[in-house]
Structure formats: structure tokens, C-alpha cells
Amino acid sequence: MTPFRGGNVQTVRTSPFEGQRPGTSGLRKKTRVFMHPGYLENFVQSVFDAVRGDAGGDFGAETLVVGGDGRFYNREAVQVIIRMAAANGFRTLLVGRAGILSTPAVSAVIRRRNAFGGLVLSASHNPGGPDEDFGIKYNTRNGGPAPESVTERVYAGTQSITRYLTLEHPDVDLEREGSVRVGETEVVRIDPLEDYTAVMEGLFDFDALREYFASGHRMLFDAMSAVTGPYATHLLEGRLGARAGTVLNGTPLPDFGGHHPDPNLVYAAELVLRMSGREAPDFGAACDGDGDRNLILGRDFFVSPGDSLAVIAEHARDCIPGYREGLAGAARSMPTSTAVDRVAEGLGIKCYETPTGWKFFGNLLDAGLATVCGEESFGTGSNHVREKDGLWAVLCWLSILAKTGRSVEEVVRDHWRRFGRSYYQRHDYEALDAAAADEMMSGVTESLHGLAGTPLAGSRVERADEFGYTDPVDGSTTSRQGVRLFLEDGSRAVLRLSGTGTAGATLRVYLERYRDDGGAGDVEEVLGPLTRGVREMLRLRERFGTDEPTVVT
């Protein structure tokens, strides 16, 4: 290792912390854990050590991007990273003004400016504040989350680290754009909106979207007091001419106003209420803490994430200039509904099924095998960046509404009439006793071979397995990605423990039943037998004292 020697570099002795293995979206812990002396520093140094070889052993010709969602401890973490990046020899550091960059914007900056990689400071949709959550993840040169081959090297480094490098230097003024020297590293504070806006302009017909609003159509966008507030205000109200007040909760706050910045029907209740009734706007949307998730609403109408992905895939070529050449393929995470599979079949393209975690889409996008992709956890995106992108999905829907002249509900019901409907729900059971949850899942996994033929939900289990994935590009394998139960009547249930929480365990149960009925059924009624059957099979009330989910989406 050859650290930069242009300033007063300090080698600080340290020792490993337990539990610094990155999950599906980096390392997430309670904020006070990250504030413990050396905790953030250890992880950042382990990242630099893990990827130094990718730079030929020396960062002296490389650029690193840094930004976050503005949550509590974001600014302090940026200052730590600035000093450490300088001590580790990066030539240039691109930092979002005020330390702000949405997750998709980080990807856009890395790709447009040919950066070596980036550090994203966020716990995504998790709450923020001194007693809530913080997170950090590393994105590679393609702009996407580091693959497991990299995150495993990072984790190994956290378990053996003995020192980290930093530089004596005052805090950098993050409020002003422009360049400043830290040691011999050039730290450039950039407009966090510039690169992302340029990417959106290259994909969408802004003139057509301006006409949509000029003709009297109205929308509401809830930024949830998080990072997309400035982006949405700039794009929707500033560039596209949506009326003032279109963006709600548009100022990013360190604690997200005390709310949970997760764009679902529970945590976006204010938006859902305002989208009810005949006088409601035509279109409603929301994004999460770091801007990579989205909620899509019509007047008194909710669009499930699986249906949203399918509708975007169905209409992309005809409604969005950036995809006029058609889609190379589609991809979805395994728990996501199979709605997009049927669209892909209708388009004559392949649909890939991957593990949960956006990083698994990266190789497919880089290889040109997929153009659009999505997850049931309100994440949708395409090959324009290597992250899911909430505002991109909103602009996709605006483009579809403007081109078709139809309402959100009409667009979705037309889709159901053409392709049938996946009746779908996700049930989250949060903050469960981790040991009991692990024991439950181990028991289910051990019994898989004997489930075929057993009664469940008025049907029988046709087959059951534990999902594994072989990457079609590099041949890498990923195992133990959730249990799948396939029933003889075509229903499907998926069970998995989430890797995005910071306290206890979160069990996610995904329920799906396909019907070619034009979408006329009631979701609760169609899925009711499957819901009850899975709860009884898992003995949730007996194990955890309740079988009522914390959140249903």
C-alpha cells in the first residue's frame, strides 16, 4: 500500500468491531454505533484496502464520489471520509453540496464523470436520527452496489484491521460549490442536481411532460422530508411546470421530520388521504429516504410495485424516447410478482429472476441482457444508472399518462385485461426475536423435501425449494435466498428474512395468485386462504405472540 504523503498523514491504531459484514445494501446499524470512535473509520479503511488492487495499488489517478441522504450524522461522516480519502491518496473527491446526493444521483455522477467508485451514506427507507439508523455502502465504477466478491473482501478486512489512515485538516465548508485542497487531494463540491438532471433529460420528452401539466393535470409528490425534495422541486415544479405546492415535505431533515421515510401505504398515509376523492389530483407519488424507492398512486388507486414494473416495461418503447429502440430484456427479484414475466413474454424478450438486492441486476445491465428491472420493495430502474431510481419511475409514469391520455387506474386495468393480474401482497413482521426467527426458518428449510403434496390454503404444495442463483454473465452463484412454495392452483408463497433492518429480525412473507380475470377480484379475498394457510404453517402466533403483520403492501 502506498498512501498519499502530501499532507500530515496519521496512522491510527485500531482493532476490529464485530458485525461489519455488508448486507444487501451495505452496512446498516444504529446511528450511535457509527458514532463510536473508529467504527466508521474502520469500515471506510476496509473498503479502501479491499478495492486498492482494482486501482493498480494506487488511488493517485482516481476519483471518488461521496454523498448521502442528509440524515443525522451525514455531514460528520462526509468530513471523516474526506480526510481518509485524502490520506489514502485519491486524486479527486466529488462531494455533493451540503453532503447531499441521492443514491441514483451517486450512480449518475460515477458513470458520467468516469469515477473509480463512490461511498453512499444512507440507510435508505429506515428512520433517521441519533437513536435511529445510519448506513454506508460502496458503489463500483459501473455506478452500482459492490458485488459480493467485493463486499466479502471488505468484510474480511474489517475482521483483521489494525490501522486506518487519516489526515489532519479542518472541516471542509460543504455549503459552497467549488474546489478546495485537502492535502494534495482536490475536493470538488458539486451541484447534486446537475448530473442527475442531465441523465433524465436524455431519457424523457420534457416538452411533452410540460404540456401534460400545462393542460391542467395535477399531481402530488411526497418527498417524505428526505433527499428527493430538491430533485423533485427542481424537475417537477422548476423544469416541467407543475404547479407550486406539487412537492410535499420537500426539505430534507436529519430525522425526516420524525417520520419513517418508506413510501408505502402505511408511512405515506398523508399522500394516500390526499389522493382520495373526486377532487384529488390525477397522479400521486412518493420516494424514500435516499431516493431509490417509489410509490405510485392514482385517484383512489394504488399501483403495486410488481404491476408498476410490468406497466413501465409494457409502455417504455412507445411512451419514453430513451427506450424507443425497445427493451433488451427485463429482470425482477425472486419475491417480486410475476407480472413482468408475462409482459416480457409478450414482447419476445427474456425475463431474469435474481436474488433480492440491486447489485444482482448490475451484470445483466452491463452485459446488455436487461434494460428495465425491479423489486417488490418499491424499487424500479433501468440501465440509465445502476441503482433503483424513484424519480425515474415517477417520470416514466408521467410519460405513460401524457402519451396515452388515460388515468393511472385506466392504464393498470388495461394492463390486467391484456395480461391478467397477479394478486399480490407482502406481509412484514418486524422486530421479531432473531433467534426464534432463525429457528423457524431453519425448520422450514429442513422440511422442504417433505412438503410436496401436503395440503395448504385449500390446495396442495406442488413443489418447494430454497432459491439459489447462478449469474448468467460471470457464473457466480448465490444460495439460500428464500424459501419458495408453489401450489397446485398456481399460487405462490415466498418466505425470507430481510437484511435491511438494524434491530431484531424482519420476516417477509410474499403471497401471489395469478388470475386471468381482468383484475376484477378483491386482493384480500383472493389471497385470504393463502394468507391464513401460511400463518398457520409457520405458527406465527405461537412463536411470536401475534400473526398480524406490522406492514402490508
Written description of the protein model:
- By secondary structure, the chain is an alpha/beta fold.
- The chain folds into three domains: 9-192, Alpha-D-Glucose-1,6-Bisphosphate, Chain A, domain 3 (3-Layer(aba) Sandwich); 196-419, 3-Layer(aba) Sandwich (Alpha-D-Glucose-1,6-Bisphosphate, Chain A, domain 3), CATH 3.40.120; 421-552, Alpha-D-phosphohexomutase, C-terminal domain (TATA-Binding Protein, 2-Layer Sandwich), CATH 3.30.310.
- 33% of the residues lie in helices and 25% in strands.
- The strands form six sheets. It has a seven-stranded mixed beta sheet with strand order 2-6-5-3-4-9-8, sandwiched between helices. A seven-stranded antiparallel beta sheet has the order 20-21-24-25-26-19-27.
- The protein starts with 8 loop residues before the first strand and ends with a strand.
Q: How much beta, percentage-wise?
A: 25-35%
**CATH domain topology of the largest domain:** Alpha-D-Glucose-1,6-Bisphosphate, Chain A, domain 3
Counting structural domains, the number is 3
Q: What is the tally of beta strands?
A: 27
Globally, the shape reads globular
The CATH superfamily title of the largest domain? Alpha-D-Glucose-1,6-Bisphosphate, subunit A, domain 3
Q: Tell me the major beta sheet.
A: 7 strands, mixed
